[in-house]
Amino acid sequence: ADLDIEVGNISSVQLNETITADIAIINRGPQQATDVVVEAVLPETIRLISFNPNQGQCTAIKNTIRCTIETLDVNDKLTLPIVITPTIAGDLVITINATSGLFDSSLAQIDLVIPVIAQADLWVDVKTKDISASIDTKFQYNITLTNNGPDDAFGVVLTGELPNSAVYNSGKIGDTICDYIEENHSITCAVGTMQAGTSKLATLIVIPKQEDALLDNIISVTTTSFDQDSSNNRVVTSNQVLFNFIATTIDNTGKNQHNYVVEPNGAVIGGSVSGVILNKGLLSNVQIKPDTIISGGVLSGTIANDGILENVQLLSNTVINGGIVRGKITSFPETPAIINTTIANNTELENVILGTNTELNTSIKLGSGVRFVGENIPIGSDLTETFPTIGIQGKTIDLTANILPNNTNLLEEINSIPNLEPFTQLTTGQLFLAMETENMVLLPISVFQVDLPATMTINDNGSVTFITPKGRQIIAQPSLQDLPALQAELNKFGWNQLVIDKTGIITIDRQVKLRPNLYVQQIDPTIPIGLEKMDSALVLNFLANNKRYQQFLYPAAANQVELETTLQAFPGATEVNFSNDGRATVMIGSTIYSAQLDYNIKLGNGSDSPTQLLIIADKNTDGIDDVQMTYSNGDKQIMFFIPPANISQPDKPLIQNKTTFEIALHNFGLDNFTVADNGDITILVDDSLSYITTPALKTKTTWNSLATGFHYTLTLLPGVLNVGLIFKDASNINRQQNLYPTAKYPDELQQFFINMPGNESVTFYENGTLLVIGDDLRFKGLFDYSINSASFPTGSIQFNSTIDLNGDEISDFEVLYGTGEKQVIFQIPE
What we know:
Distance between the termini: 107 Å
């Protein structure tokens, strides 16, 4: 007979938990087993509760259960469930063996191993005798270690990772001394077994050796028992080591003060300081040593700085030489301090002079009263806050000030821009230009340092950009010329809450947003004074200097930043623009969609709302659905949709105002022109001469005083001009569309250059220039407008050098097309 032993699977058991060990003896045959004896040897670390075999007789003697059965048939089974309770943690082993009176080729014996796990919840708490520590003074930690049970905790060890800035003095738990491990500056305290519900006390003493350091101490406890909540097994403490204090004025000549707190009534005169100085008082004529941080307080005299100054106030005429400053650095406007140092990123400066040895970048916030000794201003610096403000609500830049002492002011710099009529700044802060029949009124709102040619540009949104010869970029917004006149008209409607922000936007009772037009035009003296509506604009007619003027007031977005962000997030949107006449445009693909903003704003409840655009039913009876914008504060504003023009080739250059173009040509005696499929325009003069041009894809606003028709501008080359077309838009504003020269046969010419040996790339640009790059060649040129019929057709292109044709002493080139037509390319020097 072959006896086999099977046992139930018990993965683990908690200490003192009652379990049943299921044991079965099976006769695998082939014969009946007789005189069967089964023994189960139990460990002494359990309590036996019961055993109940399904057949035979069993007895328990000490730690062994013995069972006998006369016969056990083939495939018959003896089951023996044993109920026990483990009393000790660790592996519980029950050894089972079975024998019979017949021969058994394999001994039936097995060890049933059951892991017994003790569960203990250890908790450690650390308190310090004092909140802060003092240098070279014992600092004590009181540690409480508790076993919250339910079982005893075995192999308990308390460890401490000591602060690097302190030395170990002593440590013990109860009467047991802890072991100090010098290699990693830690202690280990062997606790052993902790009964459930008991606590032990430990003390740890260290001595701080570094001022202004943090004593970071990590106390933790471990056990070989199971602890299901380890979150309370570790405590991190952090205590400040106090400084030495200076509470009076000391003569520090020939001395050094290291790691001190200077109290509000304290002062250090002369000598040097090092380490970390928490300054609430005064440092005067001191040397700041390397790796030193001075934080807060007041400085005066001459400071030789090899460290870092942060968040300090500099008394009048203080000089800082060397080192780094950071945080907020302030002085006094009448007698500012001078800084010759490196200025850290994001530093805020007020009322200081930046010397020639100062190093700074564009992340630094230049506040009021900041001045420069020389022209060492980083490109891109925002200089706006350095200038005082005057006029309307104190938000307009005072252009009579400058950031360089004893130098020309901003207004003088603006008026030094070439070919510019002189502006004046009114007491209201407005920048004013009086012309023969119109005025320009602006609010200067920002100043930046740039590296661009001196010029004045009128932007599509109605703002004006001035770039002075010294690289100051002044952005100015259109402004209302006669505020009292508008207020008087609004009073008639009961509207008395009028606010003008720094961008010139006018808000009336929070419900109406207006943006003034850039130009104020003189009108017929018979036109009545007052406020009227004209198309999509309000118009203010008023008196000034015994003349009547008219200024258009266009609708503006309730919150342009939010509206722009929402439009930019529209699927496929690539470009968003706002024009001065209250239109918003979005380019999706190659199509431009436009909408006219409404004046009226429906006020929300001020609570947070999601910004969204909704298509709504037609509101202006033009048969087209409109759009409603909901802003984050709940305000709502309608945008009247303007359908895109029906243009089969929206990316094809087209003349924006064909009538003005034809009139301009006619004034030169030219009436015949053709337009190619690619938008190029050929103007016929006679059988031997024609002109070719391509219109720019975009137009820009320009001076309203310029006459409509052709306007000529300089190029980079002497003696070569570009042509622009000046025309009036729907709002009677002057716009300019550049008409650039181009190749007569661009595709054929480009292929000709590509086929030349060694050429790598050929690029034709919209502005009439081309660039050819080859192995040993880099040629840049500008096409001439003129096309001359010079010879008989040859069928192929020829490219030849010719004499200087524009007086720049550089040879130029001629292209002879296969048609017999010739075109000059002016060489642009690299």
